[in-house]
Structures are given as C-alpha cells and as structure tokens.
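Input/output pair, single chain:
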Amino acid sequence: MALLEVKNIYKSFGGVKAIQNFSIEANAGEIHGIIGPNGAGKTTIFNTISGVYTADQGTVLLDGQDITKLEQYKITRLGMGRTFQNIRLFKGLTVQENVMCAFDPQSRYNILGGLLPTPKRRAEEKRGRELCEKYLEIVGMQDYLQERPENLSYGMQRRIEIARALMCEPKILLLDEPAAGLNPTEVAELTELIQRISQQIGFGILLIEHRLELVMSISHMIHVQNFGETIAVGTPEEVQHNPQVIEAYLGKEE
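Output:
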C-alpha cells in the first residue's frame, strides 16, 4: 500500500470540470511532479487532496486511512503538510514565531496547560522550539530566528514556508510552485534543498511547478495535466518525448 493513494478523483465548479479522474500513488522518499499549462487544475488537485475542497467522486488515502471527507486540520494532523503559490507568512511575527505557528496542532498538553504554564506545557514549548530550530537549520535559515520575514528576500521567505510545513511533521509534503518568483541561483538552491529534505526526512513529496528544469531534474514520476485531465504519466524522459505533452505546451503544428 502506497503512503498516499489518490484514486479517480473528480472536482467540478458549476460547469467547469477542474479535475477529471485523477489518480496518483506516492511512497516515502519519492518526488512526484505535477505539471501543465495554466488552468490545468494542478492547484485544485492539491486543494482536494489536502481538504480545502471535498472531491465530488473518488477517494484519498493517507497511510491507509481514508481522508477524502475529513476537515483540513484533521488531514494535517494525520501527516500532510503543504505550501502555497502565494507566500502566506504572518507579517509582524518573527521567523521563529511564523514557524512555531504550525506546532500548535502537534502540542500534547490539555486545556489546563493552555491556561496555565504547567510542566507539561513548558516541556512541549521546549520541544516545539527545538523542532523549529531543527527545521530552520535544514532549510538554511537558522541564523534568522528573530528576523521579520518581510525584511528578507523572496527566496528566504520560501524557505521559511517550507520549514513551517515541516513543523507539521508530515508524511506527505505538497509544494505548490515553490520556485515562483525566484531567480536562477535561488531556483538551483531550492532544487538542492528539496532533494536533500526528501533524502534526510524520507517523506513523499508532490510538487507543482512551472519551472520545468526543476521538475525534470528531481522528479521520479511526472503527471501532466491539461484542462483537468491527465494526459501523460511517466518518468521525466518519457514525458518530455510524449506528443500530447509537447502539443499542450507548444501547440499543434499546422
């Protein structure tokens, strides 16, 4: 059984078929790229898998558990983390505080601990700070704990977002266009980072990205979407030579 199993999901908005019969299986240590032109339904796939939307049909299994109709916060607790196309860091909070926000669902103290500084609560806060420092070190941002994200470069903010997603201690990590807005040097650094966290932590990664050089260089398998449909699934080499993929990106020869 795969760590993540998405089986034949559909999602429509009125008369628009955003996802039609999408399936994917991902295991620990694998990176799966999802590519396609604008409007192909890629982010809708992530939103449906992670509980922002509920699939009209089909099932989503995370580590064998059916999460198809669960609320988003419950899916996160079961082991799914994600980032978004648009950076969603909190202005006015430090880097450390932004990352620590994602630790709250993982905290192991009761209502009393939320009201009073009990020993259990203090222990959990210490554990949260240690995890925060661990993941910020992994993404190379350990020296910016007390900085405000809005004062940092776009590439650094992307790394902070990834660290915050890691704080959920996911089994599956969804990265939605993590290279958007980055310069070539930052894209190369991000590519190395994604590979490294996949190897070090060993979870499955689903990656939506328009930078094809990034997707092609690190993905084990690639799913190509067009107008809500999957038009190709295969290795990077197979996908690059698929006539339907070439047509979707470059148009049909006259």
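The chain has one domain: 4-250. The first strand starts at residue 4 and ends at 13.
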